[in-house]
Amino acid sequence: MKIAFLLHNAYAIGGTIRTTLNLASALADVHDVEIASLMRHRETPRFTVDPRVRLVPLVDTRVGRTDEQHPAYAEPACDFPVADRRHHQYTRLHDLRARDYLAACDADVIIGTRPGLNVYLALFAPRRALRIAQEHLRHDAHSKTLRRVLARHYRTLDAVVTTTEADAATYRARLTLPGVRVLSIPNIVPDPAVVPADHTAKVVAAAGRLVRGKRFDLLIEAFADVAPKRPDWLLRIYGGGKEKEPLQELIHSRGLGEHVALMGPMAPIEAEFARASIVASASDAESFGMTLVEAMRCGVAVVSTDCPLGPAEIIRDGIDGRLVPPGDAKALADVLLELIDDGPRRRALGVAAVESAHRFDAERIVRRYELLLTELAATRHRRAWQRTRARLAARARGLVRRVERIRRRPDRTPATVG
Fold first, then answer.
1. In 221-352, at which residue ranges do the beta strands (DSSP E only) sit?
2. Among the four residues 71, 73, 138, 379, which has the most C-beta atoms within 10 Å?
3. The model scores a pTM over 0.85
């Protein structure tokens, strides 16, 4: 079977890129796999790409290439939805290249990896292929405008796959998608090639994009309570983003320059996690929580806010990690101090975390995708009839409403004068 992925930019750094490459590599054990990258801005990808996976760049903006001189590159995208937050990075040339790629694509399965690319899938992918929309962001993270766009296009696809069951339930409740299988399959998180943490390092680590939703400011505030009590412990934050300067100013204003450091982006991150004794996340929301599982793989005690949606489906509080209320710096500081002071407890959580993280083994996740593909192929005709029946029912309801409006309309025929 041939499986193709549509990916925003396989040459950059990001959670969706990493998880797509992991899944593609695992599927390549059995299938013919390729990734179509809408963007290419550098010679080689930042993440290692399995040599069995073909990488097909669609728009190449490297120095010396001609795509930026193409007339369509100067025009905004029309097919990629404006409501997708990446729209400003897309041009009419991206629309055209996506259309041409999908029209010629001979894959049996085509998987989109973000909302705008899933719209491309609905518009241009051949109907003979199984078309699957992956959602790496929460339903509620999309604007109302984008949700309306997705509701219209997703109903033509075969499946929508989220990373958490909570998010899948939201899609099922809020979008009417007859004939479309909506389910959750978590991300693959490979077993890292690092020695597990020994819990002797006096380091708390954190990683992610430096954006407001990740709430590194809250983590720094929590550590402002930890540092005076345990001055030999350090907080290291890995990642880059637009909040770097405000976070650096917060570190300075709280007098934490010797205790908290912004370390910059790091990929892969597992080696740094293994050098820590605790990994913390203070996010307001997580569609999955990739760094939590990566840390668990390294045998580190993890602490996370119990935010929507991912952490509660990853961490069993008190068994393989700790959960604290979102937005509560004091609660976060208290749990950090508890674990800092209790080495055996940290080790026990780390051991349990390694075992628990096997839920995200490649073999288990691939098995779930294989079952999904088998089911979709077997139910193709039944699901097509469900869509047709729903479409006819909607038209009938619309006709009834129009008739009712006509019947209620006042008679505007002028009265006859006798």
1. 234-238, 260-264, 278-281, 301-305, 322-324
2. 138
3. yes
